């Protein structure tokens, strides 16, 4: 159980850091982030703050103890966010070097946190 807890927290803290780092520029409307989302990807400006707040709330939901159903939705939201980011960058013709790191980090960090979250739940039930 101790190894599962350590692995869970390593992956979860990494995921929380990555999602928070990507949420802050969205929330505070950093000009480079606004330009990328509006000009490069073609989304409306209001979308940036919405997605930033959603990521921040997802991080909070996963870090706060309890609320398993909300955690499941937060994990799903992170997968939707990263899937949409990859799809958007592919659609505008960005090279593989722009979207492959999203796939790799998302799979490792979010997938690892989710996997060990369920391992912890199953271990606690035994």
Written description of the protein model:
The longest helix has 30 residues, at 96-125. With 126 residues, the protein is mainly α. The termini are close together. The protein is elongated. The model has no long low-confidence stretch (mean pLDDT 94). The chain has one domain. The chain is built from 5 helices and no strands. Helices cover 87% and strands 0% of the residues.
* Largest beta-sheet details: none
Number of discrete domains:
1
Mean pLDDT: 94
Radius of gyration: 16 Å
State the share of residues found in helices, binned by percent: over 70%
CA-CA gap between termini: 11 Å
Series of H and E elements: HHHHH
How many helical elements?
5
Strand content: under 5%
Q: What class would the helix/strand composition place it in?
A: mainly alpha
Query: Low-confidence parts, pLDDT < 50 over ≥5 residues?
Result: none
Could you say which overall geometry the principal axes of the C-alpha atoms support? elongated
Tally of strands: 0
In short:
With 126 residues, this protein is mainly α. The protein has 5 helices and no strands. Helix 1 packs antiparallel against helix 3, helix 1 packs across helix 5 and helix 4 runs antiparallel to helix 5.
